[in-house]
Amino acid sequence: MADPPGCCSTCATCLLCPYSCQWITAKKEKRKGLRTTKYDCTWFFFLFCVFLFTLVWLYFAVIILNDFHNFNEFIFRQRKLWLDWSLVLLIATAVLISYSSVLLILALCLQLCGQPLKLHWVHKILLFLTALVVAAAFTGLGIKWAEEWKSARISLQATGPFLHIGAVGGMTLLAWPLASFIYRTRSTGLKVVLLLVYCAAMIALYLAPLGITSPCIMEEEQLPPKPALVGHRGAPMLAPENTLMSLHKAVDCDVQVFETDVMVSADGIPFLMHDEELIRTTNVQAVFPERAALNSTAFNWTDLQQLNAGSWFLERRPFRTVQSLSPGDRKEAAKQRIPSLGQALEAAKQSNISIMFDLRPENHSDYQSFVNVTLEVILQSGIPLQQVLWLPDGFREDVKQQAPGVQHIYGRKRLENEMEPVLRVNLPYQDMSSEEIRQYRQDNISVNLYVVNQPWLFSVLWCSGVSSVTTNACQVLKEMKRPIWLLPSSTYFMIWIVVDCFSFLIIIWAFVLMK
Question: Which residue segments constitute the domains of the chain, with CATH numbers given?
Answer without folding.
Answer: 9-214+493-513 (no CATH), 228-274+308-479 (3.20.20.190)
